[in-house]
TrEMBL record:
NCBIfam families: baf (TIGR00671). Substrate binds at G104, T105, D106, L107, T181. Its cofactor is NH4(+); K(+). The lineage of its organism: Bacteria, Pseudomonadati, Bacteroidota, Flavobacteriia, Flavobacteriales. ATP binds at N6, I7, G8, N9, S10, N11, I12, R13, T129. InterPro entries: ATPase_NBD, Type_III_PanK. This is Type III pantothenate kinase. A monovalent cation. Ammonium or potassium. It catalyses: (R)-pantothenate + ATP = (R)-4'-phosphopantothenate + ADP + H(+).
Length: 252
């Protein structure tokens, strides 16, 4: 079994891959930042909850956009499994071609998974701390990326910089036009982001001259994908799948 770990700005997602399928997955909060001992205990308790035997894990792959947490997570995992994790990044070889010296590992893993799992041209919409859209052509060349503030990032900024706007549950309101503060904000955060994502997908399609397969991922993709016909598939494990593919590709 392979353990894949995606260290993001908001969450650290773990996944167990067995015979080509991710059979278990869970997250812990990235913040507040944790010590190696705290990470060690959280992983051990997760194994107990999901009935995972540490001895059955024969490989570990880590992708991270939080460098100072990478070493601590790797150290905790090595302490549990007595094997050194493989840490991948944008320079790890794969069938995907890119020309960036700044690309985050999550964006690269998203592109790798999209190229391996879907035909033709693809767009990956990642609803994370940042909202990102990554374009990949049918040959595996990464065409470019759009980065915008993520949904929760925007919501926190709105609530934090106003005196009377409350924190809200992120869910679809009954009407586009809200009747109270909560539903007004829900409409803006839900339908506003749907409109932005649809508009950006349209612009990407116009730019590359072809309709694309669109995959959403991240913790909020399941909220937005049902509200638009522009997103074909929602897969919260998409980034983890990319990390697993990177690991396997480099074991050959």
């Amino acid at each position: 079994m392979l353990l894949a770990v995606n260290i993001g700005n908001s969450n650290i997602r773990f996944g167990i891959e067995n015979e080509g399928k991710i059979t278990a997955s869970w997250t812990i909060n990235t913040k507040p930042y944790k010590t190696t001992d705290e990470i060690f205990l959280l992983i051990k308790s997760s194994y107990k909850l999901y009935r995972i035997k540490a001895k059955n894990i024969t490989g570990i792959v880590i992708g991270s956009v939080v460098p100072h947490q990478t070493r601590l997570v790797a150290k905790a995992l090595e302490r549990i499994h007595h094997i050194a994790p493989t840490i991948v990044d944008r320079n790890t070889p794969s069938p995907v071609v890119h020309h960036s010296n700044q690309m985050g590992t999550d964006l690269y893993a998203n592109a790798v998974a999209a190229h391996a799992l879907y035909q033709g041209k693809k767009i990956v919409v990642d609803f994370g701390t940042a909202l990102t859209l990554t374009g990949i052509d049918e040959k595996g060349e990464l065409l470019g990326v759009i980065i915008a503030p993520g949904v929760i990032t925007s919501l926190n900024a709105l609530v934090g910089n106003t005196a009377q706007l409350p924190d809200i549950e992120l869910s679809e309101p009954k009407s586009v036009l809200g009747r109270d503060t909560e539903t007004c904000m829900q409409s803006g955060m839900v339908y506003g982001y749907v409109a932005m994502v649809e508009g950006l997908i349209n612009r990407i399609n116009a730019s590359i001259g072809d309709d694309t397969t669109v995959i959403s991922t991240g913790g909020l993709g399941h909220i937005y994908q049902p509200l638009t016909q522009k997103i074909n598939i929602d897969d919260k494990l998409h980034t983890l799948k990319g990390l697993c593919i990177l690991y396997e590709f480099n074991q050959k």
